[in-house]
């Protein structure tokens, strides 16, 4: 069995390697949730009004924060279209925990676009109903990003379920009821906010993390048939982070964020490998991996940690004393330097995290040493979309649609600021020398024209 496992891991590594080479961006944050595609240098300046370094702009119906994904010559996006067509979004920095009105029917749809031209190739209906759970005023009814292996596309449409479509023509292959995905505030459970964790695809399997108010779980399904392979119960507050596959430390595990239960689970069985209790009480960012380390951050409440965990860690890593003395398996930890909404990014030996106020902190990824901590802008604007990089520059998008371009370096600077002219809370995709931004009403391809 160990021999077969090694073969499967090796084959998976080849698949992910070919994905990176082919410039596919198959899930939230791209290959291995890295947010990184070094293949081609991206433009650092563009102008959506004049069309400078803009390949195309295509209107997208509905309202969604689901990020675009890319496979081959297609870009895929999911969206939720309300019956009236009116879906207000309140962006910015505010503390209102109320939910948006939730009385209209919505259509959850999946679209395929030609990557070169932006032409919509098909637009299919996945589900239609009044949403079972309300959304936050800054959220949508379609927050989760789809994932693909090039043949199938899986998408979570909140409480409406897990859906699998054909990547060729959008035909529905199967669907699963995951139960009510009530991801509201644990301290005020009637403040429903909407589900946001995205599915991921690995080794012919679909992995979903469903941390909700009641009956939370981590589960794996067969991608071809939708059959449930295993399900492990979890006990934590609602979280919005996407699980991450980690093939390091001599094993393959699923890393998940959480407040009382961040941790790692054996990919094949769902057995818990390690856990960590403590952090921010509204966990949103996705774990990221570099070498033999897994990085976690979360915020809200008393804590906003940024920490590095060994991929071969085991047992309970929670500190046992008030001083927070690190246990073996925890390489470094900062209690107050993490971020709330954005997933960090690692380029080379540098880890970059961005707080929701636009404060970028750069760490040495191996030691945790802080290189700088600087604001992107003097203006007050929220930041929800996670940064991406071409290995040369980092691209940080504010909720107002301003994209700040920062060099990958130990010294902070902003080389350009590019307005998208629409609000943007969705993380961009990278492929073939282009950035694909999902704004409030469009999909915009930023890249040198061909």
Topology:
Elements: H1 2-21, E1 54-59, E2 69-71, E3 74-82, E4 106-114, E5 120-129, E6 147-148, E7 152-156, E8 162-166, E9 172-176, E10 200-202, E11 205-210, E12 216-222, E13 228-234, E14 244-248, E15 251-256, E16 262-266, E17 272-276, E18 288-290, E19 293-297, E20 306-310, E21 315-316, E22 330-334, E23 345-347, E24 350-354, E25 359-364, E26 370-375, E27 388-389, E28 393-397, E29 402-407, E30 416-419, E31 429-431, E32 434-438, E33 442-447
Parallel strand pairs: 17-21
Antiparallel strand pairs: 1-33, 2-3, 3-4, 4-5, 6-7, 7-8, 8-9, 10-11, 11-12, 12-13, 14-15, 15-16, 16-17, 18-19, 19-20, 20-22, 23-24, 24-25, 25-26, 27-28, 28-29, 29-30, 31-32, 32-33
Write a concise keyword list for the protein shown above.
33 strands, five-stranded mixed beta sheet, four-stranded antiparallel beta sheet, mainly beta, 450 residues, single chain, 38% strand, 1 helix, disordered N terminus, Methanol Dehydrogenase, Chain A
What does this structure look like?
This protein has 450 residues and is mostly beta strands. It has one domain: Methanol Dehydrogenase, Chain A (8 Propeller), CATH 2.140.10.10. 4% of the residues lie in helices and 38% in strands. It is built from one helix and 33 strands. A hairpin with a 2-residue loop joins strand 10 (200-202) and strand 11 (205-210).
Ranges with pLDDT <50 over ≥5 residues? 1-22
Separation, N- and C-terminal Cα atoms = 50 Å
Helical residue percent band: under 10%
Major sheet: size, sense and barrel closure?
5 strands, mixed
What's the arrangement of strands in the largest beta sheet?
Answer: 14-15-16-17-21
How many structurally independent domains? 1
Number of strands: 33
Give the name of the CATH architecture: 8 Propeller
Please tell me how large the radius of gyration is: 20 Å
**Secondary structure category:** mainly beta
Instruction: Tally the helices.
Output: 1
CATH homologous superfamily placement: Quinoprotein alcohol dehydrogenase-like superfamily
CATH class: Mainly Beta
What proportion of the residues form beta strands (DSSP E)? 35-45%
